[in-house]
Task: structure prediction
Amino acid sequence: MSRVQYKNIRKSFGDTEVVRDFSMTIEDGEFMVLLGESGCGKSTLLRILAGLETQTSGDIYIGERCVNGLDAKDRNLAMVFQSYALYPHMTVYENIAFALKMKKLPRTEIDEKVQWAAKMLKLDTLLDRKPKALSGGQRQRVAMGRAMVRTPEVFLFDEPLSNLDAKLRTEMRHEIKSLHRKLGTTTIYVTHDQVEAMTLADRIVIMNKGVISQVGTPEEVFHHPANLFVAQFIGSPAMNIFDGVLTRQAGNQWVIESGGSTLPLPPRFHAQATETLAVKVGIRPSDIHVLEGASHAEHLHPVDFKVEDQELLGAAINLTLHTGDVTLLAEAPGDMKFAPGTAQRAWLNLDALHVFDARTGETLSGRNTAAAA
Result:
């Protein structure tokens, strides 16, 4: 059993509180990603679990064991860091085998474990090389192999791909995901990169200034952000956000007034709507359509814009549109052409509209998954 529980964890460095009342359960075999900006407390939480930092208050459980006060070596965890931390004078084989030799395991058992890890990580032809003869991705796989052979209860990854170029990061994401499928070991992964989080995680914990903003699957945090912070943090290009005010018209019809334009307020927000409530309205660039065929869909609302700029990205174009006081980014097919300054009709997908209370930042939809599971 390798379920991990954080219970009411607080951590302060002097007068600075970096983690505030953090509670979370990571289930046996789950791949959990802690995601957030630098300084949000995610690496501190990982180091507390590993026994490299001591919490100011609260409890840590691994399985049924409370590990408060246990040394790092007694927690049966394996950690992979941003830096590979390989011994430069040792071969790949010796680096992977090092911790096993320190435990004085039989030579045959060490060899069996090293060969198993090397084959799984495609290092079996590199065992005689030293780190200087390896690529960055190969070095990180050696660090992973060194963790694997310890057969830990939990794998901990602290921004392991940050030092790799974009191509290698993509390759290593596939390696890590494949490894988790094969081993099924409970894994906690810290990153500030939302692509890593979205592609690797079973669930994501989005952190902001030492507290949880939302917990959910990648699909949940992308399609149903619980608050404005999550909405702006998740997604590339970032979600469009603009100001609005709720107004009730004749026939009990709710609308959003913004920048001289009026949008229907989708029914899912009506229960939380109040007259003259100031809101932040969000819509992703991919949910703004510029093709004529969009006009036939009932859930798409037309708005006339002026084209400000376009940015060709190959298969797609990022199109900057302006109307009244509102400027939005839309995605269009890469083979379309838009002249700056020309009029352009676009259709906003009301089914994908997000509305947040401008004062609290919380969604009006009533779907709030910020609480820890």
